[in-house]
User: Which sequence fits this backbone?
């Protein structure tokens, strides 16, 4: 599962493609809760680029941080829930789950600092 960034200048070319003009900014391995969050409401999410803007990434960051901050609170309802599926790894809320969330928070913080107004982001899953 990947997050790609497409710089605005690439879009000036009318034949731009994410494959050629975009670049990978994040990779998740078996982070089923992250995948479920990005693909909620999509019928077929395999091999499709799902556009997301910085505001959506910031929502994801807030959800991740809130789950991290409340990991020891048994009454906290998770913002990102694990999901079952082929090749998805575990569905436990364990150190791997929270590590994926922390990596996501860190990367989005970095992207916020480097973000330019018209940059676009795309989530992509291949399984």
Assistant:
């Amino acid at each position: 599962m990947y997050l790609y960034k497409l710089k605005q200048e690439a879009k000036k070319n009318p034949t731009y493609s994410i494959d050629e003009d975009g670049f990978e900014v994040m990779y998740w391995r078996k982070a089923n809760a992250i995948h479920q969050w990005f693909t909620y409401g999509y019928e077929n999410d395999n091999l499709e680029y799902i556009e997301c803007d910085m505001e959506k990434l910031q929502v994801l960051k807030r959800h991740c941080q809130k789950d991290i901050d409340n990991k020891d609170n048994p009454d906290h309802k998770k913002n990102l829930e694990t999901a079952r599926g082929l090749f998805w790894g575990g569905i436990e809320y364990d150190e791997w789950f929270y590590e994926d969330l922390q990596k996501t928070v860190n990367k989005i913080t970095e992207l916020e600092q480097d973000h330019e107004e018209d940059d676009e982001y795309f989530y992509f899953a291949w399984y």
